[in-house]
Amino acid sequence: YTRGMPRSAHEAARDPLPDPGRDPYAPVRAWLGGQGHAPFPFQEAVWAAYARGESGLVHAPTGMGKTWAAWLAPLMLGPDGGQDTPPPLTVVWITPLRALASDTALALARAAQALKPHWTVDVRTGDTPASARARQDKRLPTALVTTPESLTLMLSRADWRERFAHLAAVVVDEWHELLGSKRGVQVELALARLRSLRPSLPV
Predict the structure, then answer these.
(1) In the chain, which residue ranges form alpha helices assigned H by DSSP?
(2) 144-159 in b/e burial notation, b at 16+ Cβ within 10 A?
(3) pLDDT at position 2, please?
(4) Which of 108, 127, 128, 172 is deepest in the core (most CB within 10 A)?
(5) What backbone phi and psi angles, to 5 degrees, belong to 143?
(6) What angle do CA 91, 153, 187 make, to 5 degrees?
(7) Cα–Cα distance between 98 and 103 in angstroms, integer?
(8) Which phi and psi angles does 77 have, rounded to 5°?
């Protein structure tokens, strides 16, 4: 995890959380432990950085758990919601690969079901059927997996400020696939617009 000057994951992982009397990630460690896993130091570093309100870049080999690093902190520090009242849109997950959107959403939903069962997760891409779009037009999910193009269209709506008013985090997956491209510019413009509404929005 890097922000500004690079730091080692072990150094960042030792940083205290804002409330040292409470560890919001204890349920995460228990959930992972039940599957025979333990968090990697870089995941702990990302979670601590998010708790401090920081943005950053996660760089790790494929299969090392970048998804859990980016997802579990917004999930655990986000609103709980209730059985009949899921939280409003809290996390936007941008993927450049439309074909992977559904798999990503399934992974996010798996953790949410275990740790924040009232959260909803959905996908919005060019392949999203009309019925799902109509449902989302009435109420967005708590976490939305989308593409640069679909997010750009959503931000062109007259009511975009109300729809994104509770946004707490944006995750840009596979950022290297977007660098130096028109789609990368779309993401940068979308982030600028979202930060005009939420200036301290972590990315």
Answers:
(1) 9-13, 26-34, 41-51, 66-77, 101-115, 130-138, 148-154, 160-163, 182-197
(2) bbbbbebbbebbeeee
(3) 46
(4) 108
(5) -130, 130
(6) 60
(7) 10
(8) -95, 0
Compute the distance between CA of residue 75 and CA of residue 153 in angstroms, rounded to an integer.
Answer: 25
DSSP bridge pairs for 94: 146, 172
How far is Cα 106 from Cα 122, in angstroms, rounded to an integer?
9
Tokens of 82: 């209730």
Amino acid identity of 167?
Answer: L
Backbone angles phi, psi at 187, to 5 degrees: -65, -45
Report the candidate in 5, 40, 171, 162 with the shortest Cα–Cα distance to residue 101. Answer: 171
pTM: 0.88
pLDDT value at residue 52: 96
**How confident is the chain (203 residues) per 10-residue block, as mean pLDDT?**
40 42 89 95 96 94 93 97 94 92 96 97 95 95 97 96 98 91 95 96 96
Neighbour tally for 46: CB within 10 Å: 29
Q: In the block, which residue shows the tokens 């309100």?
A: 53
> Which residue matches tokens 């449902």?
135
155-165-45 Cα angle (round to 5): 95
